[in-house]
Design brief:
alpha+beta, four-stranded antiparallel beta sheet, Rossmann fold
Length: 139
């Protein structure tokens, strides 16, 4: 097993309207470590997660997740990591399957791979029996 970090950032910065929300973040997280992003509202926790999952591009700096650059290998990162923020998850008025299809469109999952990926996701999450249930009715 390698001691290389699974997540590494170097000067990771994100500005919104000239304000630094993430300001030159440098960190290394190795396999097996537990790392928490803790801070008050507006401190940049969600922005860091969006940067690391290649959903949002940095203003400057760089980060690598599982050896993949967020700058030019975002699709490789998105294929390996799922991220759901606390505030937003599933559309309650859509079924489980409709939510999955919505996110497949959002993340531009290749059409040929979707049936297999969806089956694997439903099986992994034990949601196959509930795929037609409205997400708001899940417990």
């Amino acid at each position: 097993m390698t001691d290389a970090p699974v997540i590494r950032t170097a000067g990771l910065t994100k500005l919104f309207g000239g304000t630094a929300v993430v300001d030159h973040l440098n960190l290394e997280i190795r396999r097996g470590e537990i790392y928490g992003l803790v801070g008050p509202d507006g401190s940049g926790k969600t922005t860091v997660m969006r940067l690391l999952t290649a959903i949002l591009a940095p203003t400057s700096g760089e980060a690598w997740v599982a050896g993949h650059s967020i700058l030019n290998e975002g699709e490789s990162i998105k294929a390996r990591i799922g991220y759901m923020s606390q505030r937003f998850g599933l559309y309650e008025e859509l079924s489980v399957m409709e939510n999955i299809l919505f996110y497949a469109d959002l993340y531009e999952a290749p059409a040929k791979e979707r049936p297999q990926r969806i089956q694997r996701l439903l099986s992994f999450s034990n949601l196959t029996p509930f795929k037609e249930r409205l997400a708001g009715r899940l417990s």
